[in-house]
Amino acid sequence: MPEERFSFFLELMSQMGFEAIPDQEVSEDTPVPQGAQQLVRERMAALEESRCLPWKTVYAQLKARRSGI
Prior knowledge:
It is a single chain. The chain is mainly α. The protein is 52% helix and 0% strand. The chain has 3 helices and no strands. The chain has helices at residues 6-15, 34-46, 55-67. The mean pLDDT is 85.
């Protein structure tokens, strides 16, 4: 992500109810809560692959939308 867009990203996440965690509070050793792990596992199990799109397709769609095409 370009540095000049980072503050916009943080504001967007804040508006969506997410909170930024200062870097010093997070490390590779920071444990992921069991509830969060379980939620991810449930979502992965319920995933319908037929509804998934390749990243290249999604990226192209986002890029086209951004440029107004």
